[in-house]
Amino acid sequence: MQLDFVVALALAVTFFGVAAKPAAAACLLAFLYALGVFLLSAVSGEAGARRAAVAVVATGSLLYLSRVAPAAVGHEALLGAAGGLACLATHRLLVRIPLPPLPPLTGRTVVVTGSSAGLGLATAEQLLERGATVIFACRSEARGRAACRAACSASGAPPERALFLALDLESCASVRAFAAQLLATGGRCDALICNAGAMHPERRVTRDGWEANLACHALGHHLLARLLLPLLRRSRGRVVSVASCLHHYGDPATLLADPMSEASYSLFPAYARSKLAQVALTAELQRREGASGVVCVSLHPANALTDVTRNFPAPVRLLYAVASPLFRFLQPPLADGAATTVFAAGSDNVSSLRGAYLERCAPVACAPAARDEAFGRRVWEMAEGHLSPWLAPLGPSQ
């Protein structure tokens, strides 16, 4: 169970404030906390930054009142309580992500890529808890099977509802083998959750000759969705793309002109472009599958604290580890980070999900390029051109 750091700190400040000035201490804490939440959401490009800005103004006003109000016991108590409540409200309303009520998922089969750890594992646990059968699509068999056992233990689900199938999204041969195995079993796929991802500080090329960010986030997942469409059409299923609000920073022109980052490579621009491609491809897939009943949705899983720096140099990983206790104040836990993904996979409000981009379990605006139909067609054509050798139908069910 995750320790609620904000509640613990608020209690500590209140206790300390008995001997000091509780109003000033509590209001300062509330202001700094709201400011930290705002800065993190604004820098990352979250739509929720506007609400966080309101919290900064409100807590700043409380801080000002705590400085100018007469030093009376009643004023101190009232403002101190208001500061503490503002701090907790910021945490509950702007950091935590409650999962809306969902119908039972009993009988549904959901594929979750990258489910051996992090957000993928948290997503799988919640799906199992709600009755779904989850296929853990991971590169490492050892880690994947360990994740199956851990998820069943955490959710109380029986082992037969957590299945492992090998999948390496950086290899088109592996993607085809995964899809062929799933199709050959005659099973079902009610949702494909395209969750796997990584950030590469240096340009890396996959065995198929593609830049690794684009290969994993966009091309590999696009190929997988295309190959699994027979099952998804049969169940009127869903394609859920776990993207990132950083896609707002992706440059559309560079994505089309230099998709493999051959001219130059920089970590965050390349990552942002790959996420822009992922969101645009999901939107275009929805336009093409509108009549089939398949629902395609992309989302930002919030700035949850994950192992995103695992491929970074050791000094960066160390710095991230040292700073992680501070981040825990500002970022939602993994279970909350997975909430929007679980909502997209399980909500019965299909009309609001079709073609949507979600943050915090609600539709918000994605980048203009990502929803532009002409740009979506060009990204689709680029992806299909790279993937053409691997797009042949798999078996008679196609």
From TrEMBL:
Pfam families: adh_short
One term of GO molecular function: oxidoreductase activity
Record keywords, A-Z: Oxidoreductase
Entry protein name: Uncharacterized protein
Species: Emiliania huxleyi (strain CCMP1516)
